[in-house]
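Holo model, MTE. Inputs:
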Amino acid sequence: MKKSPQWQLQRSEVTPESVFQQRRNIIKALGLSAIGASVPMGVQAGLSDWFGKSAPATAPRQPLSFSQTLRYGITDPLTPEDKILTHNNFYEFGTAKTDPSENAQGLITDPWQLSIEGEVENPKVWSVANILDSFPLEERIYRLRCVEAWSMVVPWLGIPLARLIEQAKPNSKAKYVAFETLYDPEQMPGQRSRFTGGGINYPYVEGLRLDEAMNDLTLISLGLYGKTLAPQNGAPIRLVVPWKYGFKSIKSIVKIRLVEKMPPTTWTQLADHEYGFFANVNPAVSHPRWSQATERRIGSGGLLSAKRIPTEPFNGYGDQVASLYQGMDLRQWY
Ligand code: MTE
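Output:
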């Protein structure tokens, strides 16, 4: 556990003890430790009050067509759409699982621009419409395994990130790819202070090695369940890296930068002894505060009745990606 930051409030200042205790018991009963457990639990518990409880319906989503469905051997049943839309991590909108669906509906996703820049010959600014016009969408049915030890199976719609990177023509210095979420505290209440945003220094940033980014599994997603993304899932455009813990799959991206050196990432900046740059799903390497050997698969019954199943190395995608890490000690490079 990280040392309590200076902004830590006494939990009694944040939320009544009974509410705090109830919430803590539920989290304990589920065997869950929130990814932001370095954020004091009382602060987490108080956030839904802080943000207010409006719970509007999900913003309208447009239907999208796609050319093919790829499953990469995953035959697990899909997680119901309503669970994918209401159990989220998107700290820009609060740290409780229901905060994003309650607080993100006003996010303006059109117009939206995504730039690809840095060590490339052909930097480019894409609109979402340009991307949809330029590449055929595919449906990819992927497991999503959160570092908090819950998981889902999601029918994403998107294009391989490699298609966008190829167009930008990386130069010989490009070794890594850095990603950045929109920074807009007006729209994203979690970004207004470290207290409301889980201690993160915004904008949320992530990174991949170039060969990881070019792997066919790495998806730029623009939709799920046949429609455009909901704000809480990272509309209008996000990354999906199915063999890595979910925190690598950065939402609502505005910038992709090809760089020479390993870029800083949000969770390694927050607690590098707990969250590594590679973050490959690995049942053999425990998080310092919990085991990663099993996961709760979210199905129709929600988290309380979610079945506990064994976690697979690389989240079941070893055939596609294990070769990327040949010769690397994955305990050291967690
Ligand atoms: N991206 C941003 N910008 N902010 C976040 O808080 N949370 C990550 C990831 N991407 C996060 C983010 C985490 S921890 C997970 S598990 C996934 O988004 C969750 O994606 P989902 O809510 O669509 O299931």
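The longest strand covers residues 150-160. The CA atoms of residues 279 and 315 lie 11 Å apart.
Archived with the compound record.
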